[in-house]
Amino acid sequence: MLSQKHLLGIENMQKSDIELILNTAESFKEILERDVKKVPTLRGKSIVTLFYEPSTRTRTSFELAGKYLSADTINFTSSASSVRKGESLKDTAKTLEMMGVDAVVIRHSSSGAASYLTRHISASVINAGDGTHEHPTQALLDMLTVKERKGTLSGLKVAIVGDILHSRVARSNIFGFTKMGSEVYVAGPSTLMPPNLETMGAKVANTIEDAVRNADVVIALRIQLERQQNGLFPTIREYAKFFGLNKDKLALAKPDALLLHPGPVNRGVELTSEIMDGPQSVINQQVKSGVAVRMAVLYHLIGGSR
Amino acid sequence: MEKKLLKGARAIDPSQNMDAFIDILIVDGYIREIKPNLEISDAKVIDLTGLTVTPGLIDMHVHFRDPGYEYKEDIESGSMSAAAGGFTAVACMPNTNPPIDNSALVEYVKTKASKVGKVKVLPIGCVSKGQRGEEITEMGDMAKAGAVAFSDDGRPIANSSLMRKAMVYAAMFDKVIIDHCEDPSLFEGGQINEGRVSTLLGLAGIPRASEEIMVARDILLAREMQTPVHIAHISTKGAVELVRWAKQEGVRVTCEVAPHHLTLTEEAVMGYNTYAKVNPPLRTQEDIDALLEGLSDGTIDAIATDHAPHHVDEKDVEFDKAAFGMVGLETALGVILTKVVGKKGISLNTVIQKMTHGPAKVLGLDMGTLKAGNLADITVIDLEREWTVDKDKFFSKGRNTPFHGLKLKGKAVMTIVDGKIVYSEI
C-alpha cells in the first residue's frame, strides 16, 4: 500500500513507496507483452488527463496505462475545453470534483499547479509535469529503466546534463536517484544552472566531461530552443559543441553506461544521432517503462481499498 | 472647549527622549500639557493605567487601491485597518487606476479621507505621468495640493536620467522621491528570492542584485546631485550595507524596512504559499540579521508595512499567477513587538522611533511627537496583551497575510487622531 494519496513529486516520497511502484511496474510489463492488453483491475474507475501544455507522449502514455487497467480515461485538453474560455484551474477542479472522477493527471506550465489542485479536489492528483518543478512519473520510469538493466540503483553514478534550471525531469531524478542510493552529478551551461543544487543532494560538476566520467547512467535533458533567444546560450551550434553529447564524450562513461533522454530529442543538439541510435541508448525502452510505471502509479493510487 | 486627560500610562516619545509615567492633557484636539500627575477638574479622564502611550504610529508606505481597485481596498476600509493597527497617519502609494499623477487626484484622496474621518491619509504622487517612466509629473502642483512625497512604487524607475531629474525637481519643493528599487532586466518574471527555495520549487528567482543595483544607483545620484532619496522596503544585506556606507559618506539617503522582511525567510513560500509572495521577496536569515543590525545602528530610518491588499481570487491561484503583496497594517505593531524587539539590541524605544518620528523626519512632516502644542495623534499600546492573528477579523478588505494564526504579544488598544478616539478596545 502506498503511503500517499497523490503523486505530486519525488521530493516528499518515501523510498519504500518508490520501491513498491517500481516492483509493481516490473510485473505490469508482462501485460504489455500480451495479445489482449487488458486486466480488470481499475474497472469502474475514471481518470481525467488535464493537460494545459501540449504533450502527446505523456498524455498517451497515461491514457493507455489507464485503459490497459480497464479504467475509463478521458482527456480534457486546453484547446477543446473551457480552459480556453478562461476558466480558472480552481473552477475546473470543482467541476471535475462534481463529476466524480477518481484521479486527475495534470500537466501545467505553473510550478506547484498539481499541489494547488489538491486543495480544490478530493480525487487523487498525479503530477505529469508542473512548470519547472517536478515530473515524478518520468523519474520513476527512468529509475525502472535503469534498475532493469543494472539490477539495482544503489551505488550507481548518474550524470544529468543540460538545462538543469528549467528541467522538472532533472529535479525529480535528482531526488529519485539519490533516495535510491545513487550518486547524482549534474552539469550544464552555467547560465542554466540554478543555485544551491547541493542542498537537493546533487553534486555539481564543472564540465559535462566531469559529470559523465565513469558514470553508469547518463541522462541528457531536452533543451528548449527558444532559450537561445532569451540569451541563455549564444547559438544552438555552440550548445551542441560544448554541452551536447557525442560518441567521444559518452566514451568517458563506463563502457556499459546507459544513455537516457526524456524525449523528444533534438537530434544533433543534445545527442548526436550516432549515440541516440547506438547500443547504449535505452531511449525507446524508457517509453515502454513509462506505460508500466503509470499503470503502477494508477493502480496504487486508485486501485484497491483506498 | 473639549478636554481629555490621559492618565496613568507610561509615555514613550523618542522625539524628546521621553520614557516615563506622564499624563497628557488634550484640549480641542491639541496636546496642551504633558506632565506627571496632572489633575484637571473639568477634563474627561481616560484611565490608562498599565498601558503605554506613544506618538501616533505613522506608516509611510501603504496601498489603499482607491481609486480604481476598490474591490481590494478603499480609503474607508484602509483607514479603519490603519486605526485598528494603531496608526494615526499613513502615506498612500499612487499606483491606483488612474494613478495619482495630478493635483486633482491628490485632492480626491484627501477629500475622501477627510469624509471617512479616521486617520490622516497622506497622498504620495507619481514620479512619472501615468507611471510610464517617461516624463516627470507636475510635482509642484501636487505638492501644493498636499502630496507628501513622490514615487512610482510598484513600477521601478528603470531610466536613471528620469530618476535624476525627478530627484532634483522634487527637492525644489522639499519633497523626497521614494524608490522601489528593482532592475527590471534582472527581475525578469521572478517569483521569489533566488536561492535554495527557488531551485527546489522550480520558481523563477529574483536576484538580490536586482534590488542592490538600483539602491547603489540612487545613492550615487543623490551624492552627485546632493538631493535626498528614500529607498522603499529594503530587503537584502547588500542593500543595508550600501545605505550604511552612503550615510557615512554624508549622502542624504534614507530607507525603510517592512515587518515581513524582518521576520520571515524564503522558507515561508514552501508548499507554494501565495500569501508569502511579495516584492521584494522574502530573503534569508542572513538578510534578516543584516536588516535587524541596520535597524539597531540607525542605518534604517523607518518601519513601513507596504500594506498591499489583494482579493482572494488574486491569491487563490497557481503561484506564478498570484499577485505580489501582503496586508500589514493590523499585524505590524504586534509582529514588531513580538519578533523584533530584543533582537540585536533593538529596544522598544527604537522601534517606536522607527514607527513615529523616524518616518515623519523622512517625509519632513511635523508629526510623530507628543510635544505640547502638536495635534494630539496618540497610540495607546497594551504591551502585555496576547492575541492571535485572525485574518477573517481584519478591517482591511485584504485577507492576504502570512501571519494568520500567529500568536503575538502587544497590541494597539486605542488610536487617537486630532484628539478624537477613532479606535478603541478599552
Describe the structure.
- Chain A is globular, with a radius of gyration of 19 Å.
- In chain A, 39% of the residues lie in helices and 14% in strands.
- With 306 residues, chain A is an alpha/beta fold.
- Chain A has helices spanning 15-33, 57-68, 89-99, 113-118, 136-150, 168-179, 208-212, 226-229, 236-243, 247-250, 273-276, 283-302, and strands spanning 46-51, 72-77, 103-108, 124-130, 157-161, 183-187, 203-204, 217-220, 258-260.
- In chain A, the strands form two sheets. In chain A, strands 7-6-5-8-9 form a five-stranded parallel β-sheet. In chain A, strands 2-1-3-4 form a four-stranded parallel β-sheet.
- The longest helix of chain A is centred in the C-terminal third of the chain and has 20 residues, at 283-302.
- Chain A has twelve helices and nine strands.
- Chain B has 426 residues and is α/β, with parallel strands linked by helices.
- Chain B contains 13 helices and 20 strands.
- Chain B has helices at 75-84, 103-116, 139-145, 160-172, 184-187, 196-201, 208-225, 237-248, 259-263, 285-297, 332-339, 348-354, 357-363; strands at residues 3-7, 10-13, 18-21, 23-27, 30-35, 44-47, 52-55, 57-62, 87-92, 120-125, 149-151, 177-179, 192-193, 205-206, 229-231, 253-257, 302-303, 378-388, 407-417, 420-424.
- In chain B, the strands form four sheets. In chain B, strands 8-9-10-11-12-15-16-17 form an eight-stranded parallel β-sheet. Chain B has a six-stranded mixed β-sheet with strand order 3-2-7-18-19-20. Chain B has a four-stranded mixed β-sheet with strand order 5-4-1-6, with no helix packed on it.
- In chain B, helix 7 (208-225) packs parallel to helix 8.
- Chain B starts with a strand and ends with a strand.
- In chain B, 59% of the residues are buried.
- The interface between A and B is medium-sized, with 24 and 20 residues.
